[in-house]
Amino acid sequence: MCYGVFGSKTIENWSGFFIRFHQSIGSPPGLVISIDAGKRIDSAVTQMFKNGLSIKRNEKSLNVGDLMDSIRQLCMEKMFLRRKIARKLEGKILPNVMKDLNTRSRGLKYMWRYSHKDGATHAEMLGQVEGVTRDLIYWRHTVDLLERTCTCRHWQVTGLSCTHTLCIITSTLGYNIEDYVNEYYSIAKFKKAYGKSVKPMADRKQWPQVDPGFKLWPPF
To answer: Which pLDDT belongs to residue 97?
Structure first.
């Protein structure tokens, strides 16, 4: 959790806060920031986070129908752009995910030993990975490639191979990193997620009119 305390709601103060916030979390896909109509906060957010879906300080004054229609149009544009990207993707795992994993797999100076489960095949490998931190503290983790687990728990929590797992995969002939990434990060899932479109709608003047005598039941 991140807190900031300052004397006035200026762009400079908000920018300083979001600069540090951005340094902490980066710009993860799907990031949503609720700005709650704070003074000048929207300007600071849009300066630091370029990849978010935002509602602009003049759309907040719209009535609820127009506001929801504005959000629908933003979603329509986002879905369209993501489908364009999906058409160009090839392979099994999203390229930005593979780029990050390949980068993290380089130069790992770990020691590791392996064994097979009793009567198991070569794919059912157990690995013991060990190393020393910069503070000269010894550590050790156990990796199970079949169960897709590591005692550091990074693999189980994120679905992405931890460096301990990457060490074993890249050191073993015939093993591929993409085979040990959760399907959540697959190109197939990405295409399926953005396969449906948000359809355009007629002008609001042509929408069905609500009977003025209509009442909710039970009353609130």
So the answer is: 95
